[in-house]
Specification:
47% of the residues lie in helices and 11% in strands. It is elongated and about 140 Å long. The strands form 3 sheets. The chain has a 6-stranded mixed beta sheet with strand order 6-8-9-10-7-11, with helices on both faces. Strands 1-4-3-2-5 form a 5-stranded mixed beta sheet, covered by helices on one side. The protein has a 3-stranded antiparallel beta sheet with strand order 13-12-14. By secondary structure, the chain is of the alpha/beta class. It contains 20 helices and 14 strands. The two termini are 77 Å apart. The protein has 5 domains: 81 residues, 2-Layer Sandwich (Signal recognition particle alu RNA binding heterodimer, srp9/1); 35 residues; 179 residues, 3-Layer(aba) Sandwich (Rossmann fold); 71 residues, Helicase, Ruva Protein, domain 3 (Orthogonal Bundle); 189 residues, Up-down Bundle (Methane Monooxygenase Hydroxylase, Chain G, domain 1), CATH 1.20.58.760. The structure holds adenosine-5'-diphosphate, magnesium ion and zinc ion. Adenosine-5'-diphosphate (ADP) binds next to helix 7, helix 11 and helix 13.
Length: 599
């Protein structure tokens, strides 16, 4: 700018004083002027008189008579066009060049930064080269089932040909589901570390932008890159940020997110399954995900990454104390027993807190007292996350033992697969899982009565062993009441009400509208009878559960003790304690346990 100003001052600035045109005109007429140069916009001239500065300028006015006047006075005059190119260059070409220069400079600067203005649509995935990742399965503990599933994935990636030659299809998507801090992200990185393939890692929220269409473009770009690099892994952390159910919210739809999700669904369908690209994703809120994401061909494998049990916690602790100097009195087993309900991240944090405490006290090594204090601190902080107290664990253990024992004793019920008092992330404090031996489409009346007894057994066990009942049976009661009510009002299983269906067909089977089932059209009296009959059936089931558990009081105690000690028991363990002959091998594990464990 300074340069331009200077140039203009030197070459273009009119020299001499500036005078009004009228004065110039009168000076012409009175013959004071020696010569003039008529420019396009200015007229420069020199006066005849020699004192002072003879040069002057004036603005040119359209004045056809001027030439006549000049000729009359014999003034030398010339036109001026020669300096135009210079003035043009200086006037706008140079500033223009400067602006373009600046612009390019900034663009390049911004383009160099991550993302860049011009690469909106580029996916921001960080790519880890094969040997960047140092995490392996050895760094993950306490989630053995998830680990086994993922080992299989690694096998696919290392050796895709082996599976596809037989016509098999490599799974496309694996969804890691579990409470926060249980090691989902860690597992994904371990898969990468083991498989030694390129790993695209990004978080769901990175797709979500202010501008509609950008997210979708990023998804496209990501898949293009991934396909070029196959075999590889694409890992989308916190999938719920973009995979939420479409178009339901009270605030209307979220156009951009929906487009992004649609694009993701389309890409997952569209790409070549023979190319070994595996999409992994992690979420701790599977319930908000769009169902379309979970159907086969997309995230067809779901891996539950749950909070670790006692043995798992011990293993996680031993991983994290590797770089910590431990005192001789530290017993990881004891620590693991005291940290029921802690997730992997909480345990890592515990080790760190203990180390910090020890350092603050200038100790040479971290000893048990530091760990104990760290646990107390963390539990106080975790209060909101509901870490169970000893008392609560006992209640839950009795409750689950009750379910399990009644389920094993009643004939014709599905065998117990697993009992656990490890808190699950999704609300239940413990659960008893039964594994069906075969698919069932029909239930006989007796099966239903047995199912009710099993549901009510948790509560009965608490009552028998502790003399009190807790709030923990709410879900059991709800399910029991539902079943009993259906027996009475839909399936005609009550003598009093008779073989009449009252409520059936009023709920939509496939669309969960969240609306309560409409009441059928029947009289107040029938309604009362239905209520009475429902209550009678549930009460009968409760009596049955109580009877069984009172008979087996001793067994209830033993199972509960075992459960408190081990936290998780499998069905064979239980049957062994009960002296029951183990039935034929349960069906292959991938049949999946019954979807709704008794909590
Ligand atoms: P998530 O993604 O499930 O919320 P992360 O994988 O981010 O949890 O876990 C956070 C940290 O907690 C990990 O980096 C690791 O140090 C520790 N951690 C969590 N789970 C485990 C585990 N099962 N074994 C070992 N360390 C774990
Ligand atoms: Mg995570
Ligand atoms: Zn229960």
């Amino acid at each position: 700018m300074l340069f331009i100003a200077l140039m203009q001052a030197m070459f273009l600035a009119p020299t001499g004083r500036s005078i009004p045109y009228s004065e110039f005109k009168s000076m012409v007429r009175t013959g004071q002027i020696a010569e003039v140069t008529v420019g396009e916009t200015v007229i420069r001239g020199v006066l005849k008189r020699a004192d002072g500065n003879p040069a002057f300028t004036t603005s040119r006015i359209d004045d056809p008579k001027l030439i006549e006047d000049l000729e009359a006075q014999n003034v030398r005059y010339t036109g001026e066009a020669s300096a135009r190119w210079l003035s043009e260059i200086l006037g706008w070409v140079v500033p223009m060049l400067l602006i373009i220069g600046f612009w390019m400079f900034f663009l390049r600067r911004m383009g160099g930064a991550e993302g860049g203005v011009m690469s909106f649509a580029k996916s921001k995935a960080k790519i880890y080269a094969e040997d960047d990742v140092k995490v392996s399965f050895a760094d993950v503990a306490g989630v053995d089932e998830a680990e086994d599933e993922l080992r299989e994935i690694v096998e696919f990636l290392k050796n895709p040909g082996k599976y596809t030659t037989l016509g098999g299809r490599i799974p496309k998507g694996v969804l890691l589901v579990g409470p926060p801090g249980t090691g989902k992200t860690l597992l994904a990185r371990a898969v990468d570390g083991e498989a030694k393939v390129p790993f695209f890692s990004l978080s769901g929220s990175e797709f979500v932008e202010m501008f509609v269409g950008v997210g979708a473009a990023r998804v496209r770009d990501l898949f293009k890159q991934a396909e070029a690099k196959a075999p590889c892994i694409v890992f989308i952390d916190e999938l719920d940020a973009l995979g939420k159910v479409r178009g339901h919210g009270p605030m209307g739809s979220h156009e951009e997110r929906e487009q992004t999700l649609n694009q993701l669904l389309a890409e997952m369908d569209g790409f070549d399954t023979r190319k070994a690209v595996i999409i992994m994703a992690a979420t701790n809120r599977p319930e908000v995900l769009d169902p379309a994401l979970l159907r086969p061909g997309r995230f067809d494998r779901q891996v539950l990454v749950d909070k670790p049990d006692v043995n798992g916690r011990e293993a996680v602790l031993s991983i994290h104390v590797k770089n910590v100097k431990l005192g001789p009195d530290v017993q990881l087993r004891t620590l693991a027993a005291r940290t029921a309900g802690f997730a992997g991240a909480d345990l890592a944090n515990l080790v760190n807190e203990a180390a910090l405490l020890a350092a603050r006290r200038d100790k040479k090594a971290v000893d048990m007292a530091d760990f104990e204090e760290a646990i107390d601190r963390l539990i106080a902080g975790l209060e909101k996350k509901r870490v169970m107290s000893t008392k609560e664990r006992e209640i839950v253990a009795y409750h689950e033992s009750g379910h399990a024992i009644v389920a094993s004793i009643l004939p014709g019920t599905d065998p117990v697969h697993k009992i656990s008092i490890v808190q699950r992330g999704f609300g239940a404090l413990g659960y008893t899982m039964q594994l069906p031996l075969e698919d069932r489409y029909l239930l006989q009346e007796l099966d239903l009565h047995h199912q009710l007894a099993i549901l009510l057994a948790g509560r009965a066990a608490e009552e028998i062993a502790l003399g009190k009942i807790s709030t923990g049976a709410q879900n059991d009661l709800m399910r029991a009441s539902d079943i009993a009510r259906s027996m009475v009002a839909e399936w005609g299983m009550s003598e009093k009400v008779g073989p009449v269906s009252h409520d059936a067909g009023r709920t939509s089977r496939f669309l969960d509208t969240g609306m309560p089932a409409q009441r059928g059209a029947y009289s107040e009296e029938t309604a009362r009878t239905i209520d009475e009959e429902t209550k009678r059936i549930v009460s009968a089931a409760q009596t049955e559960a109580r009877r069984i558990l009172t008979d087996e009081r001793d067994l209830l105690e033993r199972v509960t003790r075992r459960l408190l000690e081990k936290e998780v028991m499998d069905g064979d363990d239980l049957r062994e304690m009960m002296g029951i002959v183990v039935p034929d091998a349960p069906p292959a594990a991938d049949e999946g346990p019954s979807p709704e464990p008794v909590a």
